[in-house]
Amino acid sequence: MNHRLSGLLEPRSVALVGASDRSSWSTRINEALDVIGFDGQLFLVNPKGGTAHGTEVHRSVHDLPVVPDLAYVMVPSAAVLPAMRDVAAAGVKNAVVLSSGFAEMGEEGRAVQEELAELCRTHGMSVLGPNSLGYVNIAARTALKPFPPGEELRSGSVAIASQSGNVTIQLMNMARSFDVGLSFAVSTGNEMDVNLADVVDFLAQDAATSVIAVFAETFQDPSAFLAACRRARDADKLVVCLKVGRSEAAARAALAHTGSLVGNDAVIDAFLRAAGVVRVSSLEDLLVVADTFAHTGPVDGGLALLTLSGGTCDIVADLAEDLGLVLPDLTPGTVGELGALLPDFAVAHNPLDVTGAAVADAMLFGNALEVVARDPGIGIVVAAQEIDHQAENVAWGRDAVRHLSEVAAASGTPTILVNTTVRHLSPRVREIRRELGVPAVFGGVDRVLPAVHAIQGWTRDRHEVAPRHLPTLTLEAPPTGTWSEATCRPLLEQAGVPMVPGVVVPTAAEAARAAAGWDDPTAIKIVSDDILHKSDVGGVALGVASADVEERAARMLVDVRAALPDAAVQGLLVSPMRPDGVDLLVGVVREPGWGNVLAVGLGGIWAEVMQDVQRLALPAGPSEVEQALRRLRAWPLLEGARGTEPVDLGHLTDVIVRIADLSLALGEDLAAVEVNPLRVRGGVVEALDVAVVWSA
Hints:
Low-confidence stretches: 248-263
Strand order of the largest sheet: 3-4-2-1-5-6-7
CATH class of the largest domain: Alpha Beta
Strand content: 15-25%
Oligomer: single chain
């Protein structure tokens, strides 16, 4: 592979800088390279010279017979800069810096790290760390990370990319305990140079990797990370991520509702989802989803489950309902074939209890699986049964799991074997799995089924949103501060967003004259860019009869000026009242480093009370907006619950997309835009109020 990190992550020659028999770390790295079978050139470097680990030690990198591809620097933090100057001057272009004591230690350490970074930039070096435990490249048999004692690492296609060195080791240990095959395990440390985005981008092109498991505490370069995830998705590789530190994002713009509804972590969540990342909440799920995808790849179609237990069928049915996981009915042809195959007391449906008859007939489970896998509505088959554990001691189990594995390998439908619960793997079970090619994945049904559901969703949604043709806008005022509804109205008109008619007037008398032209009651609002929460200061009056408009408007001007004497009041906005409908909030917040995120949910006074909101990273098209609306708990109100008029969904999604595109057209100076409420009734969609906040 020709990637800028190829020399760093696929070196054929390595210098261990700081090598010494007295260093436990040096000993562990040397042993790790020996255990994994590194067959490249290995050099030991230490200013003291002598020997270490039975090998000659060179006093400087300059003394080596060749310029190594990579230097692994494991000296005390105070010695890192001198050691790296030697490495850089020798022409080495890649390094891993183990030592801690840099930016993670405060300002003094940060200053030293910046000096180190400048050295590396000057010499064009790619550096992992500092404070990085390094990596293991299983396919290339390179281990520049401690190799904990225990079972061997199984070669596979799951790559681990983690900012935490300890978490990387814990994931490696879990993978070894449950026989999960790995391709890579990388710890990025302080990310002075190489960060998660760089590693994911490399793994997206790595032939040995099919799925990338990411543990992230923060995203140094969000746009680069998202771009790398999209490249992985385009290569049919799943990125599954455990992101911790949910309060990381910056404070929201001070809009009435959008800020609280978008939330801190929700920004990250929306953008990860849009980039095709499956997000999980535990280390176990991180590995379960990754291992499942490594066996199945994309899953296009419904799930069928086979077991020897009616109780397991009940567990699966309940779990599927909770998840929204579809267990399709089997076709009449499949039911007929199963009826001829299974005993008379068996019921051929999904999930399928093959019954205890499979214990007497070792071929029955595999034969039933073969029939189900041919069903045109099935995209994945899960066999929930500990047959491989039975194979350890019982001939039936060995014959049954061999046949099941052969059927799974020959099937065009992804098929996996799942334990009902998480089970310890004895050495013999591990041997049997590898000898027979058993398609077993880590986790019990309660974790694997959610993993399958996530993979189905990833398969369905892995597409790019078509480029948006954004409206051309003319701003009516400087892009600073907060814009009132009156100032925002021309923006909505230019973007093609329908808005209730309105007239801005300077006096109460003119408000009455404007209202006289409408049959409906009148809405009166104070107009001031200094007042965002108008109702809090008596700046909103709804359902005012025509005869009362002048008196009510005059009182509003007095009340507002008394409450906020320093606010600049431009006048009053007078609009006709609209019939009742469903009120939605449609708001967009711009998050620096990430972009614009749309929040849509129940509007008006219910926005924060109900917390029924869906979020989308922008740009987004009509299909994404429609899916978000359908995920709302309030969706039945839009669909026409209890005889109410259903909304024109196409028109509604079009209006929401126009608001989203408007936010993008407003550029990087935008902090937030909020339409609240957007009133919907049948085929009528109108914005009743709008505000814009600028970052300047």
